[in-house]
Amino acid sequence: MAKQIPNIRFLLVGNGVWREKYERLAKRIGCEKNFIFTGLVPPSEIPSLVGVMDTLVHLSQREGLPRALPQAMASAKPVVAFDCDGASEVCLNDRTGIIIPPGDLAKLEKSLVRLAKDDAERKTLGQAGQAFVQDKFTVERLVEAQYSLYQKLLAKR
């Protein structure tokens, strides 16, 4: 991708077991200038990091409903995520972002290049994601859903 889009940058947030491996790999293949490794950051800094992104890429294969997805979508950022756990409940494929089969690196690259080159598509997906989050993830909606769940559980008693 760096050959197709030389100024592309990937911001990797966190300290997982893979961080050192990714840093070494980036250096070994000569694209370390395309990566920024932040390490672990306080939750209060996440909004400013999301603010500098064009697209949020979330490649976790086990995480339930990743908080990073609705956080990015609330900021009108399109998301690209592997189709696992709760990602597809938030990222609606080709409506609020792009869902990739887990491990499909060719489709991941194609999708990222497409979004990197198409400002209008990024904006459209980002705005749709923001509207989705504002509709589905309000405090009122979440309380209403939880209340409804409790009512159903109590009715079974």
Q: What class do helices, strands and sheet pairing give?
A: alpha/beta
Straight-line N-to-C gap: 57 Å
Side by side, the strands of the main sheet go 3-4-5
CATH class: Alpha Beta
The overall pLDDT, averaged over residues, is 89
Return residue spans where pLDDT drops below 50 for at least 5 consecutive residues: none
* The CATH fourth-level homologous superfamily: Glycogen Phosphorylase B
Helix percentage: 40-55%
Shape: globular
* Total separate domains: 1
Strand content: 5-15%
Question: What are the secondary-structure elements, in order, as H or E?
Answer: EHEHEHEHEHHH
The CATH architecture would be 3-Layer(aba) Sandwich
* Oligomer type: single chain
Tell me the CATH topology: Rossmann fold
Give the total of beta strands.
5
Describe this structure in words.
With 157 residues, the protein is an alpha/beta fold. It has a single domain, classed as 3-Layer(aba) Sandwich (Rossmann fold), CATH 3.40.50.2000. 48% of the residues lie in helices and 13% in strands. It is built from 7 helices and 5 strands; from the N terminus they run βαβαβαβαβααα. The strands form 2 sheets. A 3-stranded parallel sheet has the order 3-4-5, with helices on both faces. It starts with 9 loop residues before the first strand and ends with a helix.
